[in-house]
Amino acid sequence: MFEHIKTLSLAMPAPVGWLLLLVSFALLLVGFLLGRYFYRPQPIANKSAVLVPESMPWHLLSITHASEALKSHQTLGLTELEANKRLLMVGANRLQTQRQKSLLSLFTAQFKSLLILILILAAVVAAAIGDIKDGLVIVVVVFINAFLGFYQEFQAEHSLATLKKMLELKAKLRRDGYVNQVAAEGLVPGDIILVEAGDKLPADGRILTEHSLEVDESSLTGESLPVTKQSAPLEQVTLPLAERSNMVYMNTTVTAGHAEILVTATGDHTEIGCLARLLAQAEESDTPLQQQLDSLAKRLALVALVVASTLFSFALFQGKPWMSTAFTAIALAVAAIPEGLPAVVTVTLALGMHRMAKQKAIIKRMAAVETLGCTTVICTDKTGTLTVNQMTVRQFYYQAKHYQVTGEGYQAQGEIQCSEGACDDLSALLQPLCLCNNSDWQNHSLGDPLEAALLVLAEKAGMNYLSLTHNWLRVAEIPFAASYKLMATFHKDSTGHTLRISVKGAPEVILKRCVQALGESDFACARLLNENTRMAATGQRVIAVAQRELALNDYDAGGDLFAYLTDLTFVGLISLIDPPRAEASVAIKRCHQAGIAVKMITGDQKVTAMAIANELGLQGDVLEGHELALMDDDTLAACINAVTVFARTAPEQKVRIVNALKQEGHIVAMTGDGVNDAAALKTADIGIAMGQIGTDVAKEAAEMILTDDNFATITRAIQQGRGIYENMVKFVRFQLATNIGAMLTVGGAAILGLPEPFTAVQLLWINIIMDGPPAMSLALDPQRESTMNDAPRDPKSTILSWTRFSNICWLGTLMALGTLTLLAIDAQHAKLSHATTLAFTTFVLFQVVNVFNARTERHTTFNRYFFRNKTLWCALLGVVLMQITVVYWPEAQALFHTQRLTLQDWCLASAIASSILVIEELRKQIARGLRRHLRL
Ligand code: ATP
């Protein structure tokens, strides 16, 4: 073994040197290449051909004429074949606002730094005056630096582009008579799309049919209130967009009702596509951390420039050759200025966002990743987030009898049993449930899970609800909204004489509209409310069903539909289970451990909400929507910490809850899915939208989208956010310690009258090649499981606190002390080039060892994560091999002004470099002991 090692100290033959160099490079790059992606340019749409003239006055045409003009079938839509043909002609339905950054521009951006330009200039000057070797090395180093930067930015860009793709709009459309959900990019003129409240319109279109359709067109027309839409043709040719009530436009949002739309224009041919001024998308501003690091880098740059120029003047004064001194000064500035820090934050955040997306949390803005780690309270919806959102009817109360229902989920197998003997005929209960229903359960279009569950109940009772909907044609609808908590549909019978109104909704809301019809008055009402409470106490969601019949002549289609919802006949109470998610209670427990409060905000009634909260381990006060309405903001803020469940809350009240929590100093994450949740999502520090059941409006307002709608994903995302921040701290600690160490070593040597410890080329080598890959791989460090045992980070705290900064300076000082001591001792016995090679190698080894210090700030670095980061180990091995190459390979020796070292030298350098780890471990131990002592 000894013999073998000894051979190292002999001159290394050229091919071995090349081989080693190659292997080292390969190892350094292997980490970066682990997540290799391929660049796929977006196909450019052929926009030369359009199907119909853009100036077509669609609002003047009848539905039939509009469909004919677009050669579309009014009920079946386009055929798939025809749609594909049209897509080739008009191109994808996409606004050409943001072009992808080209690879070349990404690469050239790496040279836009002043320091790099100075370096290139220095290389050119060096080559011009005959020092071709130094010039060449500088150019090579600059290019390797550019390549590494380019590769990381490319990865970051790619990650962000993938996220954007995940956020692409979907549209429900009908082709060949079938309804499907497709990417909105595939829409073509002539397609028929189906939209409902909360949807963002994916194209311009002519309304074919609608029910209480209202659209928020403020992004296009500036009109702040939603406008009511209708389907009849208009007469005036020159109507402004805001008044074209039978048209809808891309990027506007449906606030109420639903409709079928014939697409008239897509992509850049839409109204919004023509308004170039609206298309400029805001560039994402820097995150707080990026801003902090930017200003930090600038301050350190100032210090480094002062030190470098002082050294330069000092050396000139001593009569040293100005050219090599200038080189060293420039190299020192490059080594000491951490100008890459903000860029590293971008890359780390982007890669973190990519990882989080894989774990079902899509983050839209980088700053949100940072904020996530500071979250102190999560306000979450119940249905779908804490529960599975799979409803099953379990009991119902009908004609003073109690019924139980068996069977699971959306399977029609199951039985209905009556507690009081034989079952009555259930058709009077089931009919309104099936009519007042938008689910198409048999065609696998579940729609609202609650409504699908009601159809499953009808199936279990053997009712053919399809024939029912044919006999009772729907003429109008009041869609369900969380604000008024009911839904009503209006149907005329086959004779055309009778109008039947079917209503379902929250029991107290429906009963209020039934009181007159109940006849027996308050007593009957109280009995029904008791039944409701009994069912809800098991955590089940309860709805009441009612109906009314009147002569069709008494119905005015254009009138206020709510006016008909009086004197309803009460029919029954239905109770549905929606079990809590298995992982939710564990996730809540982890939040509590992490110092994060969880508050449930639900539209459900108090009794149901409390039962579910108990099951999930949420303890605290309950506040109902009507109580909250009576409180002023200060009173609400005063009691908000004690409240855990907000029941029967209207979506609008969520904004007040967020504001009250913020007033109490919380960093609030808030979930939402509906149109009315948008304001609260925007007000919260982290708005979280549901990817599956969430509306486009909610998704647009949110910072984070859960693709699985699961509460546990929020907890995981917070953990990731904390972990990403921790990794950035590691990076900053490592990088700054090197910067300060280099500055102190070079500055210290000058002050102590020692020879220059590093040449310019060596300094660049240390800073760019030896330092970069290990530092970057710290961003991939595994996340501590115990991150969720710490309290949330204070968002106002800076990444470089005084304690942290002094620790970094301390580590830098140790490096300088160790390197200069060896330099001073060796310079006395050996040749100067040997002493500088030893100093250079010691400093490089200091970096290798200091990586481990950077990984933990308080705890020992020898923990179970020690070997987990494979990329880091590859990078470190690469660094050591590179250093061996530079020291032993004759060609490299000439370039780097190095000399071969003996085994003894290596042992000495390694021992001195390792001392930084031992000393830092001791410091951590003592600090831990002191902390424990002070706490006692
Ligand atoms: P959470 O906030 O927990 O997710 P939610 O938002 O689902 O609850 P809402 O949708 O506002 O709550 O429902 C409030 C009440 O309205 C329910 O308790 C139920 O009684 C009634 N309800 C819910 N969905 C419908 C519907 N499709 N038709 C009629 N009534 C409904």
Helix and strand topology:
Layout: H1 2-6, H2 14-34, H3 63-69, H4 80-90, H5 103-109, H6 114-128, H7 132-166, E1 170-175, E2 178-183, E3 192-196, E4 204-216, H8 218-221, E5 227-228, E6 247-248, E7 253-265, H9 271-274, H10 276-279, H11 288-317, H12 322-336, H13 341-358, E8 361-363, H14 366-372, E9 377-381, E10 392-398, E11 401-405, E12 416-418, H15 427-435, H16 449-460, H17 465-471, E13 473-478, E14 486-492, E15 498-505, H18 507-518, H19 522-536, E16 541-551, E17 569-577, H20 584-593, E18 597-601, H21 606-616, E19 621-624, H22 625-630, H23 633-639, E20 643-647, H24 653-663, E21 668-672, H25 678-683, E22 686-690, H26 696-701, E23 704-706, H27 711-752, H28 760-770, H29 772-778, H30 802-829, H31 832-855, H32 870-888, H33 890-896, H34 903-935
Helix pairs in contact: 2-32, 5-7, 6-7, 6-12, 7-13, 7-28, 11-12, 11-13, 12-27, 12-28, 13-14, 13-27, 14-27, 15-16, 18-19, 20-27, 23-24, 27-30, 27-31, 29-32, 30-31, 30-34, 31-32, 31-34, 32-33
Bound molecules: adenosine-5'-triphosphate.
